[in-house]
Design a protein that fits this description.
Number of domains: 1
Number of strands: 2
Largest sheet: 2 strands, antiparallel
Order of helices and strands: HHEE
Strand content: 5-15%
Distance between the termini: 41 Å
Strand order of the largest sheet: 1-2
Radius of gyration: 17 Å
């Protein structure tokens, strides 16, 4: 029971870190998703392996940010990151 609680606390801490991360957002999201999935499937060893694999592969983007710039004619061009 204490292991499950410890994994849940670590996952929530990593998720809160991933929500605020900008450059490595996809990496942190992949780590959290991989560790959570690995913990469910194979326990603590699976959490470590899943976190490593998730960090390498990356995860989905959680933020919806728009990047805008001015083109050669002075018009504003925006796209989603």
């Amino acid at each position: 029971m204490s292991r499950i609680l410890m994994v849940a606390v670590l996952a929530l801490a990593a998720l809160s870190t991933a929500a605020n991360a900008e450059p490595g957002e996809r990496t942190m999201t992949g780590v959290v998703i991989g560790a959570g999935t690995g913990a469910v499937v194979a326990g603590p060893v699976g959490a470590v392996v899943g976190g490593v694999v998730g960090g390498v592969v990356g995860g989905p983007r959680l933020s919806n940010r728009r990047a805008c710039r001015r083109d050669g004619y002075g018009e504003r061009r925006c796209h989603w990151r």
